[in-house]
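One such given next:

>
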Amino acid sequence: MKKVWLITGCSTGFGRELASHLLEQGYSVVVTARKATDIQDIIAGHEDKALALTLDVTDPAQIKQAVLQTVARFGRIDVLVNNAGIGYFGAIEESEDAQVRKMFEINVFGLAKMTQEVLPIMRQQRSGHIVNIASIGGLVGFPAVGFYNATKFAVDGLSESLAKETAPLGIKVTIVAPSGFRTDWAGRSANNSPIVIDDYASTAGANKSNIRGYSGNQPGDPARAAVAIVKAVESENPPLRLLLGAAALNGARNKLELLKKDYDEWAETSIGADFPKE
């Protein structure tokens, strides 16, 4: 039997491409978005295998209903893809509290609540796979998106802990870390802070302009990303972290080198912070 997938944030980007690809491959897919009207075209022609649901991941009641409806329709949940998320541009000092908290509610707490609601089902099955869409920005920090980075670092850390908790239960976890892809993330899905401080023009300002400037022309192909995600989930030994895009791979490798440099250069100081061995 092909797996049953539940995917959040399917109106655009990775969620849309992944849902479409899975349905074409004959999987059963629960396709969700804040507005169900935005995803009707995805399930058209696949009504026997698809279920379109309204789901705002900041609404616990909608999360519970989505999970209940998935089980009622398909009897199980094999793969949860926590894809719903937004971005936000602004230097740390420029960033607005309300916008930052909104982003955390969606990117972190919504993801966590979805996961908590699905875990009892996967524990009962003694099988399942949770795929959390993070970012290369969950491994490497960049100017202008510091609070976005903070949400994705949180997703990475939560996912790594979850993987260790659920491994004995037959539940796998994969963190997907893309670089620049042709989705709406750098377009309508990310607000700008209206506060602009000139001292950050060469750092946050420059990176914001760069990211906004190549929106729609990023090297990453969401359709190929969908194929890669399914390949990872269907593999015998799926990765904990799946980097997507050459820039993600290069960025992660550069980060590894920087970490090693700091750790090695300060190793003596690090060890010296312990009580002396007797």
Notes: The two ends are 60 Å apart (CA to CA). The chain is about 50% helix and 15% strand. The chain has a mean pLDDT of 94. Strands lie at 4-7, 28-33, 50-54, 79-82, 87-89, 128-133, 171-178, 190-192, 241-244.
